[in-house]
Design a protein that fits this description.
Blueprint (H helix, E strand, L loop, with lengths): L1 E7 L4 H5 L12 H17 L5 E4 L3 H13 L7 E3 L16 H8 L1 H9 L15 H4 L11 H21 L4 E5 L1 H12 L17 E5 L5 E6 L7
Parallel strand pairs: 1-4, 2-3, 2-4
Antiparallel strand pairs: 1-5, 5-6
């Protein structure tokens, strides 16, 4: 048996203010920091020893990773950062208030953009540049659907995370709502039409236990009181 724990970063200022964020860096709120610390306490109770941690290029996820690792006294393990675990790029919605967008386009359209699988948010008219990605030769998206997010995430799962799990090494992934929804869709084999029902709250770990062939043996939503 081998363990995978996936965690959405703690609350960011954009989460608090109901703003679309995407690939924009925003800091954690005090509540977000506290959520990361609470995740660490929960994982410390479980006693899982991780071989590696994986996170995105976004500061809110990196900081949450460090908070968790400090709380479980595992700051020494390798932390692998990859743009493939980034939040989905919300295109022209980035930086906009979700309630105001809802007023403009209606609840149904907003829901499709936020929770649908193939629905593409409005694209930027010009591609953004960021030295983090320029140095990798990665072009920032004009916008991304969840399907596109899953497409760029899966090679990292297949090349970096799954092989470590197959070697019996427990893994921690700290990422974002959409990138984790894309991973959950793949792991749980959720149909396209049902993925809109999946929500990944900030700072609520999900614990997968796999057999030697990476078949799911158990999936647990971790809380201070155990399963829910």
């Amino acid at each position: 048996m081998v363990d995978l724990v996936i965690v959405r970063h703690g609350q960011s200022q954009a989460n608090r203010d109901n703003i679309f964020t995407g690939w924009t860096d925003v800091p954690l709120t005090p509540e977000g920091i506290a959520q990361g610390q609470a995740v660490g306490r929960e994982l410390a109770q479980l006693g899982i020893q991780f071989a590696d941690a994986h996170t995105s290029y976004m500061g809110r996820a990196i900081k949450t990773t460090n908070i968790i690792l400090e709380a479980i006294d595992q700051l020494y393990i390798p932390v692998h950062k990859t743009w493939r675990l980034n939040e989905r790029h919300y295109g022209a919605l980035s930086g906009r208030n979700k309630a105001k967008v809802k007023e403009e386009v209606g609840a149904d359209q907003l829901h499709r953009w936020r929770r649908g699988y193939t629905d593409l948010p409005p694209q930027l008219t010009e591609r953004q540049h960021d030295r983090r990605y320029d140095r990798l030769g990665v072009k920032m998206p004009l916008s991304e659907s969840l399907a596109m997010t899953q497409q760029r995430l899966l090679p990292y799962w297949q090349d970096q995370i799954a092989p470590r799990l197959l070697d019996g090494k427990n893994q921690l992934v700290v990422a974002h709502g959409s990138s984790l929804r894309a991973l959950i869709k793949y792991l749980d084999q959720i149909p396209d039409e049902d993925i809109d029902k999946v929500e990944v709250p900030n700072g609520k770990p999900i614990w997968y236990r796999f057999d030697d062939h990476l078949h799911i043996v158990k999936k647990t939503f971790i809380t201070m009181d155990g399963e829910d």
